[in-house]
Amino acid sequence: MNAYTQATFQAVADAIVPWGKQPGRYPIAAFVRQQIDHSQFVPPDTDPSHPIEPLSLSTAKLLDVGAAALIERGLTIHPIRNGQFPGGGLFASLARIDRLRVIALLNQSAVPMDAMPSLYRDNPGLVLTMMDSLHQLTMFGYDSEWFGYGTTRLLPPNDQRVEYFPPSWCQTGYPGPAFGYRALRCGSLPPMRSGGDDHRE
Hints:
Elements: H1 3-16, H2 27-38, H3 55-72, H4 96-107, H5 124-143, H6 167-172
């Protein structure tokens, strides 16, 4: 596991997960990294001796480019605080609100394309998609049952098992999966008529 990428995505999760939901936000970074790398297209004729850079690593570099642009333009609100996410780069050293401002800056296509990692260079659509995905995947990872998979979190879906209640289940009062939950049925089916085209089985 790349410490730099890990620290960067921890900083992403720390910025996006609401303050009232802080416990458990860091493991969500692993979920976001996994989903991003799993979505990366790798051409079948790729030379194994020259593997393609993981999309999560390129994204971490992209966030650092955005952080540099935010600082250069004097748009940061708080001073840089090194060491809050050990191993991270410039993005991880920013305050929470400034990290969100970096994501917004990149989402506005306000960072020169030639400064971006090669995977994102000249591809503004991918930049916009990734900035949206960071928000969506982070909140999905937190609000879904993924956190409760425990030691099986990073295994293939068929091998994942719920080991304990995820925080989101506790917050919503969901008692966990079971057979035979009662469901409220609104309305009823219209009466069936015999004959004609309206015959139903």
